Amino acid sequence: MITLYGFGPAFGLPDPSPYVMKTETQLKMAGLGYLKVDGDLEKAPKGKLPYLDDGGLVVADSTFIRQHIEEAYGIDFDEGLSPEQRAVAWAAERMIEDHLGWALGYCRWLIPENFAIGPAHFFDDIPEPGREQVRQEVLGEVRHAMTAQGVARHSLAEITALADRSLGALSVLLGDKPYLMGERPAGVDATALSFLAGLYCPVFASPVREAALAYPNLVAYAERLMRLFFPQHTPQAMDAA
User: Fold this and answer.
1) How far apart are CA 66 and CA 44, in angstroms?
2) H-helix or E-strand containing 52?
């Protein structure tokens, strides 16, 4: 039995973490049965979600989970792609996760209005009077991490401009194809769907979301894949897209 540890549905999305959603999408792509349960960050092998328990074998980090799925079940998410296409797919994944992903995180955590209606509620189960202290401590840790990475050193306008370049590149890569790499979904589509769904989520207003809405092919792509893999979460996550 495969058990996927995530955060659980939130904000109309299957999971607030695009990394958890990416892994869940790949499990669906692979046609593998799984049980999704709420994870505990303190018990997570790397202090992050997702992680996966496959019959007692614990695998952490969405990229290594994909590798495990492919090796353990004889699945190639990039089947049919040429070596060059595989290289492009990997580069696109890294652009999405390691560049666009930071802009997504900034907009949720460091825009005060979005933090108040979103991540601030992650701490609602903590008893008072310590709840607000924990909330502010974690927010401070997130701000520190984003400053160390560099994204929080930019103005919101600069962050939007950088995100828009990645969105534009992704739009060009997609073109008028049904999937990023052609006629059938590949591993990179799970990544793209998860981060685009997070950006398009109408709960969180931001200039980055507005920039993402300016690419009709990406909007249509994200809506189509949401209906394919998570029909129960469409239209909640995409109704304003």
Assistant:
1) 17
2) strand 51-54
Q: What is the model's pTM?
A: 0.94
Distance separating alpha carbons of residues 197 and 99, to the nearest angstrom = 16
- Domain residue extents for the chain: 2-73, 83-233
Helix, coil or strand: residue 5? strand
Are 38 and 5 in contact by the 8 Å Cβ rule? The answer is yes
> Which fold would CATH assign to domain 83-233?
Glutathione S-transferase Yfyf (Class Pi); Chain A, domain 2 (1.20.1050)
Q: How many CB atoms neighbour CB 171 within 10 A?
A: 17
- Note if the bond before 50 is cis, omega within 30 degrees: yes
pLDDT per residue over 88-143, tens digit each?
A: 999 999 999 999 999 999 999 999 999 999 999 999 999 988 999 999 999 999 99
Does CATH number 3.40.30.10 belong to domain 2-73? yes
Element (H, E) at 57: strand 57-60
Distance (Å, whole) CA 211 – CA 146? 21
196, 230, 234, 235 from 202: Cα distances, Å? 12, 17, 12, 10
The pairing of strands 57-60 and 2-6 is unpaired
Sign of CA pseudo-dihedral 39, 44, 49, 53: negative
In the structure encoding, which two tokens stand for residue 227, read together? Answer: 């209906």
